[in-house]
Design goal:
The chain is α/β, with parallel strands linked by helices. About 45% of the residues lie in helices and about 15% in strands. The strands form 2 sheets. Strands 4-3-1-2-9-10 form a 6-stranded parallel β-sheet, sandwiched between helices. Helix 12 links the parallel strand 9 and strand 10. The longest helix is centred in the first third of the chain and has 16 residues. D-glutamic acid (DGL) binds next to helix 3.
């Protein structure tokens, strides 16, 4: 007999479209699971908002996903992970995973001197969440967290190369290089599209190769563990269905498709009015 709870989808939530990189990683790892992605792109960016507003937005979005009977939720958004993860975890009756602890854990694995740089939204940087996550895993390690707010609109505009994003990236990296970081966490779902540029500018500024880490894969590792310990895997054999729900229908899906690594218009995309 099928366990009904196990046949619910896995939810993935982000403030916008950047979390599609996490959805892609989840889909690659769990091809038989149904997935529901909620992107609150009508209200992006979250990273400039107050903590209370982020909590309110997160509650509203979690309630939409709850209506889809999800069995677990991956919060792909760093800002929500920083400001609302505990609230969601306390209020929801399914397990909730964030992206901050997995990113920090990965950075510790590759850093020798435990001097971890983080680029993040202003709200995430102000929250102190990365510093707390790092201290919990290794009290000797040091976090240097730098807000990089302009990178979100640049990515949304599709400005992924050229002088303008390069200048912004250099400006945000310079203070981290002064702190002599030996690993850098991309603490925002938008930044992976700039990963190659961030990596080359960081190498140019610091004169050495510094690992640049995206939390999508380590977050999926946490999901694998959760699915195993809670025995949540589907018992069906057919391929899982992927559904994308957005709070605003974009004019074009070029950036969404870059995040997802495939043509998003060929997927099941619908809009929801919050
Ligand atoms: N998804 C957000 C994050 O990862 C970035 C975009 C925003 O500011 O909402 O922090």
């Amino acid at each position: 007999m099928l366990k009904l709870r196990n046949e619910g989808p896995i939810g993935v939530y982000d403030s916008g479209l950047g979390g599609l990189t996490v959805l892609r990683a989840v889909a690659d790892r769990f091809p038989r699971e149904d997935l529901v992605y909620l992107g609150d792109n009508a209200r992006v960016p979250y990273g400039t908002r107050s903590p209370q507003t982020v909590v309110n937005y997160a509650r509203a979005c979690a309630s939409v996903l709850r209506g889809h009977h999800i069995k677990a939720l991956v919060v792909a958004c760093n800002t929500v992970s920083a400001l609302a993860l505990q609230v969601l975890d306390a209020e929801l009756f399914f397990p909730v995973l964030g992206v901050i602890a997995p990113g920090v854990r990965e950075a510790l694995l590759v850093s020798d001197r435990k001097r971890i740089g983080v680029l993040a939204t202003s709200a995430t940087a102000r929250s102190g969440a990365y510093e707390r996550a790092l201290a919990a895993l290794d009290p000797q390690a040091q976090a240097f967290v730098r807000p990089a707010p302009l990178l979100v609109p640049l990515v949304d505009e599709g400005w992924l190369d050229g002088e303008l994003p390069r200048m912004a990236v250099r400006k945000y990296l310079a203070p981290l290089v002064e702190h002599d970081i030996d690993a850098l966490v991309l603490g925002c779902t938008h930044y992976p599209l700039l990963a190659a540029m961030i990596s080359s500018e960081l190498a140019a500024l610091s004169g050495k190769s510094v690992p640049v880490l995206d939390s999508a894969q380590p977050a999926v590792d946490d999901l694998v563990q959760l699915m195993e310990t809670r025995q949540l895997a589907t018992e069906r054999d057919d391929p899982g269905k992927v559904r994308i729900i957005l709070t605003d229908m974009p004019y074009d899906f070029a950036i969404a498709s870059r995040f997802m690594g495939q043509d998003v218009t060929k997927l099941n995309v619908t809009a929801v009015d919050l």
